[in-house]
Amino acid sequence: MKVSKKAILVILSVLLVISSLPVICFAQGEAPLLTFDKNGTFTILHLSDWHCNYPLPDVHKQLVLESIAEATPDLVVLGGDLSEASNEDQPAALKEICEIFVQAEIPFVITFGNHDYMHGYTIDEMFAFYREYGGEYFIGTDEDPALFGCGTCSLPVLASDGGRIAYNIFCFDSGDSVEGKGYDSVHPDQIAWYQSKAEALKDANGGVYVPSVVFQHIIVQEIYDKLFPEAKKYNLGLREYETKTYDLTPLPNLSSIKDGYIFEKPCPGYYNYGQLDAMSKNGDVRAIFCGHDHYNSFTVEIDGVDIVNTPSIKPHIFLRKINWGSRIITLHEDGAYESRVLTACELMEKDGSQIAKAGGITRLELALVKIWKVFADAFLIFWKAVTGIIYNL
């Protein structure tokens, strides 16, 4: 079959145009690319620890809907421990959750929590439910099925001009529990995968590490090094891990907290496989965002990495409602980031909010919580100073 010179020229012209475009290739099965907006920002809404029944309680759904409306996110990260439905209702419960984001047309991913392992399905089957019910909007992948858990993946975010990867989002499955010991952690094979991925991104970025953030359910063990002393001969309580035992004094070292509240002792994994050390050494990871500890909303910097706890969206008990909600994270194309807790109480004060009607909190309770917050913030300043002196003696 003869091909005309004109046809050949057209084909060559097309190939030339294609070859001039930025070459950013990803293996089959990896997540689609996300992009910074024209202002150089990318917004993530972190929704963790729903612990909801089926059907989805009105207060959970209303808080999520109003959080989405307020944050207008480019991506939603579900922080794990979502549905507490019975085994037989679990598929329908996950479908109901996924439909929120499908109807809102927002991309979303899941980082599994320990309770997600407790529903009569394997974690791979749970992931398959999200894929099925999330459709095109569920962009999580199980990037290397040989790794521990399921859903560990990398989500690149392109610069606003589309010419390079300006940020990267790592998602990890931090597992369930270690029998007789405590909670699980991000495992060695996942850490090795992260190191390989970070190096590949660096090579494609002219030898410079790509700024990154990390999402996982269970917090890193080093949080205790910042908040509590190692146990001595006399102590007020113990929490034991593989290599260290900590003295759970009545008050943690609040001077280490950059912002937010700590209303319960954090619950990291029993084993420390060196995740934070690896990420700190590279210097690419700006923050590790965790859930798991429902009432905490703090940020603590450790070895150049912010460790950030997002509170549960499940209604807190009364005095802890001052940090009940989700977290808005804004990535900046220049490598910076910022985050804040978006509380249910804040949303309730906006015109048209239906959270009170949904049963999460009464208007009277809201007023009392606001008064309590004033006192809590004042005492936090005082106790930051006091604990800073005590822990540095």
What this model shows, in words?
This protein is of the alpha/beta class. The protein is built from nine helices and 17 strands. The strands form four sheets. Strands 1-5-6-9-13-15-14-12 form an eight-stranded mixed sheet. It has a five-stranded mixed sheet with strand order 4-3-2-16-17. It has a two-stranded antiparallel sheet with strand order 7-8. A hairpin with a 6-residue loop joins strand 5 and strand 6. The N and C termini lie far apart (about 90 Å). Mean pLDDT is about 90; it is low at about 1-30.
CATH topology: Purple Acid Phosphatase, chain A, domain 2
- Strand order in space, largest sheet: 1-5-6-9-13-15-14-12
Q: Could you give a short account of the major beta sheet?
A: 8 strands, mixed
**Classification by helices and strands:** alpha/beta
For the record, give the distance between the C-alpha atoms at the N and C termini, rounded to a whole number: 88 Å
The CATH architecture term is 4-Layer Sandwich
Written as H for each helix and E for each strand, in order along the chain, the element string is HEEHEHEHEEEEHEHEEEHEEEEEHH
Question: Which whole number gives the mean pLDDT?
Answer: 91
The structural domain count equals 1
Q: Uncertain runs with pLDDT below 50, 5 residues or more?
A: 1-29
Helix content: 25-40%
By CATH's scheme, which homologous superfamily applies? Metallo-dependent phosphatases
The CATH C-level class name: Alpha Beta
| Rg over C-alpha atoms, rounded to the nearest angstrom | 23 Å
Give the total of beta strands: 17
- The coarse silhouette is globular
Strand content: 15-25%
| Separate helix tally | 9
